[in-house]
Amino acid sequence: YLLLGRWRKKHLTFRILNMPSTLPPHTARAALLQAFQYWSKVAPLTFREVQAGWADIRLSFHGRQSLYCSKNFDGPGRVLAHADIPELGSVHFDEDELWTEGTYQGVNLRIIAAHELGHALGLGHSRYTRALMAPVYTGYRPHFKLHPDDVAGIQALYGKKIPEINDEEEETELPTIPQMPREPGPMPDPCSAELDAMMLGPRGKTYAFKGSYVWTVTDSGLGPLFQVSALWEGLPGNLDAAVYSPRTQWIHFFKGDKVWRYTNFKMSPGFPKKLKRVEPNLDAALYWPVNQKVFLFKGSGYWQWDELARTDFSHYPKPIKKLFTGVPEQPSAAMSWQDGRVYFFKGKQYWRLNRQLLVEKGYPRDTAHNWMHCNPQTPDTTPSGGNTTPSATGTDYSPTGTTLDTTSSALDSTLN
Amino acid sequence: RALGPAEKEAAVDYLLQYGYLQKPLEGPDDFRPEDITEALRAFQEASELPVSGQLDDATRARMRQPRCGLEDPFNQKTLK
Fold first, then answer.
1. Measured between beta carbons, which residues in chain A are less than 8 angstroms from residue B69?
2. Most B CBs within 10 Å: which of A92, A115, A127, A128, as the mutation test of the B interface?
3. In chain A, what is the greatest distance between 2 CA atoms, to the nearest angstrom?
4. Average predicted confidence (pLDDT) for chain A
5. Which of A112, A135, A210, A394 has the smallest number of Cβ neighbours within 10 A?
6. Tell me: the pLDDT tens digits for A280-324?
7. What is the pLDDT of residues A153-184, one digit of tens each?
8. Does the pLDDT value for residue A188 go beyond 90?
9. B69 and A79: CB-CB below 8 Å?
10. Cα separation of A370 and A222, whole Å?
């Protein structure tokens, strides 16, 4: 491999400026999204799509003439695409090619896009003729995957991806053939989104839900944003609440007057069901390991639910503040976390409760900064009493990792 | 068979475009035969073709393959 440059940050935005005429838009889009995933699966990179405005990586199609590119293409065949190296971010495809997906005919958009993204991330051409980064296109491969030389190159630039899934989760990984997405809502910005739900899921993975999308939160960064329905088939977006119970291995999702149940990513038979004995349009849900019950929240009230017994709800809802002292009404999300504490989220802030379900000193704190690895907020939003290190505004992720260090140390204090 | 000037020119353009040949910074514009031979050898080696230094059929066929528009860093001399 050859290294030509590198981005100083690892969380990049991208924007698809136009589409090829030879593929249905959702097929072309799925091919481009999959191209990003090849790289985000092997390196600690995240790619977030933006629908308007500036983006770090900008993908577009043009032909022999172009108003914004000095390098014209040459019609069908020969040069298929080109890209600038970091931190320029432009990726151009020859619109005169027959772009295809899932066939040996034409030129496979997903493979060429993955190659050009390799350049946009800093890789040059590889000497291995079977490598993705080889200069010459060797045709469609149905079970395409990166060559070891491609992986070695990207990891030389950005390090290895910290394995956040153990092998037993491999089989529950996203299907490699991109799901044909229904028209998803706009992709949220984890740094500014008020969460729909948070869940400590199977095998200790933390999931954040917003709109049609879900992403994982780890102490080394955020996972890529996936459509909720790409992971939990049949589940809608804009959820009210999500909760995983280690006692039953069930995951319950709530939206409106319905409840869905999954085991891992497989929906349980007979679901979704109608919510009858608790109110619809819940705000949040959590599993409390101390008494192994599921708590449902709405407005100022809560329900305590025993998944395996018939619960008498006649005395519910009960006042939240009677049991969870110091938390806000109408939380947007809640969860019990692996540190044994309970977290409530609302707006841009979160509250941490100790084992006695009392909000701890120095809370609320900023969710984006302490959970979503976002740039520190301006000092005036640093919550009073919080021991979050005030930081300069607008500092970007820098290669020396000062911000990353700051963020991770703040995050460490949260995680600890 | 003897190659026409157009085929030779197309091959030199390819070697130039993809970094196998380096335009001389000063002096005459045309390339010395040994530079072209060396560039062809570098291209043939990187393409896993027989390294003949000649513009043979296999080499010309490979130059017609669809590819990425970025240069190749396979000629150590031009890479430097």
1. 71, 73, 79-82
2. A127
3. 74
4. 83
5. A394
6. 999 999 999 988 999 999 999 999 999 888 888 888 899 999 899
7. 999 999 998 765 443 333 333 333 333 344 55
8. no
9. yes
10. 12
Average pLDDT over residues A222-247: 89
- Nearest chain A CA: its distance from B48 CA (Å): 8
Length of chain A: 416
Length of chain B: 80
Say what the pLDDT of residue A376 is.
66
Phi, psi (degrees; rounded to nearest 5) at A222: -100, 145
Determine the 3-state secondary structure of B38 from DSSP.
Answer: helix
Instruction: State how far the Cα of A95 lies from the Cα of A117, in Å rounded to an integer.
Output: 17
Buried/exposed A76-101: b ≥16 CB within 10 Å, e otherwise = eebbbbbbbbbeebbbbbbbbbebbb
Cβ neighbours for A338, distance < 8 A, ≥ 6 positions apart: A200, A204
Give which of B27, B22, B25 is closest to B38, Cα–Cα. B22
Extended beta strands in B10-71, E state: 67-68
Q: What is the dihedral of CA A182, A186, A190, A196, to 10 degrees?
A: -70
B74–A83 C-beta distance less than 8 A:
no
CB contact at 8 A, A268 and A248:
no
- Test B66 with A125 for CB contact under 8 angstroms: no
Chain B residue whose CA is closest to A73: B69
Instruction: Determine the average pLDDT of the residues in B3-16.
Output: 86
Give the pLDDT of residue A314: 85
Evaluate if residue A232 carries a pLDDT over 70. Answer: yes
Q: How distant is the Cα of B1 from the closest Cα of chain A, in angstroms? A: 24
ipTM of the complex: 0.87
Closest CA to A273 of A291, A253, A297: A253
A362, A387 in Cβ contact below 8 A? yes
Residues of A whose CB is below 8 A from B73 = 2, 124-125
Of A2, A73, A112, the CB nearest to B73: A2
Q: What is the mean pLDDT of residues A396-415?
A: 28
What distance in Å separates the CA atoms of residue A145 and residue A311, rounded to the nearest whole number?
A: 50
Tell me which chain A residues have a C-beta less than 8 angstroms from the C-beta of B46.
127
Residue type, A356: Q
Sign of CA dihedral A224, A225, A229, A230: negative
State the best of B68, B72, B78 to mutate against chain A, taking most chain A CBs within 10 Å: B68
Nearest CA in chain B to A1: B73
Q: Please, what's the b/e burial string for A51-60 (b: 16 or more CB within 10 A of its CB; e: otherwise)?
A: eeeebbbbbb
Q: How confident is the model at residue B28 (pLDDT cuts 50, 70, 90)?
A: low
CA gap A364, A384 in Å, rounded:
9
pLDDT digits (tens, 9 = 90+) for A50-109: 988 889 999 999 988 887 788 889 999 999 999 999 989 999 999 999 999 999 999 999
In angstroms, the CA A207 to CA A165 distance is: 13
